[in-house]
Design goal:
It is globular, with a radius of gyration of 18 Å. The chain has about 150 residues and is mostly helical. The chain has 7 helices and 2 strands. The chain starts with 12 loop residues before the first helix and ends with a strand. Mean pLDDT is about 85; it is low at about 1-5. It has helices spanning about 15-25, 30-35, 50-60, 80-90, 95-125, 130-140, 140-145; strands spanning about 70, 150. A two-stranded parallel sheet has the order 1-2. It has one domain (about 15-150).
Length: about 150
């Protein structure tokens, strides 16, 4: 409680990670992509765009390619979560400082996205050992650290 009697917003690091992850898991591919996929009976009708991005960028991210970054779109984050994010980085004046402060949170969110994308990634591999791919997915946190962008 503050001196004025109002309760301050206190939340844990994990709370912010969960909220961002849940917001991103609600983001599906655009309607155009869904319409294009309707004709293909084997494809799901709706798929999360971050799961697809994880699959498409997996090899580049695990090789730590400097040209490929995992993109998170601010528009996919709900307003309440954006407010919490802004509170978390309110003391950061420079964008680079904010990115450094957010690195742990965003890296963890991306690691959770990759864990959700694991079946899709495993189903798309052709010439690799699935155990090595699983290991790469489990260690993606270090590969994606500072290799993301919040747009």
């Amino acid at each position: 409680m503050t001196s004025t009697g109002q309760q301050e917003d206190v939340w844990s690091y994990g709370y912010l990670i969960d909220n961002i992850f849940n917001d991103l898991m609600d983001a599906n591919l655009s309607q155009q992509q869904e319409e294009a996929d309707k004709d293909d009976k084997d494809k799901p009708k709706r798929i999360n765009k971050y799961i697809m991005q994880a699959r498409n960028k997996f090899n580049f991210i695990r090789l730590k390619s400097p040209d490929v970054k995992f993109s998170i779109y601010r528009q996919d984050i709900k307003e309440n979560t954006k407010k919490d994010l802004d509170k978390y980085i309110k003391d950061c004046i420079i964008v680079e400082k904010a990115n450094i402060k957010l690195n742990g949170i965003i890296s963890e969110v991306i690691a959770q996205i990759y864990k959700e994308a694991e079946p899709l990634i495993l189903s798309s591999i052709k010439y690799e050992d699935p155990q090595w791919v699983r290991k790469s997915i489990n260690t993606i946190r270090s590969s994606v650290s500072k290799n993301w962008e919040l747009i």
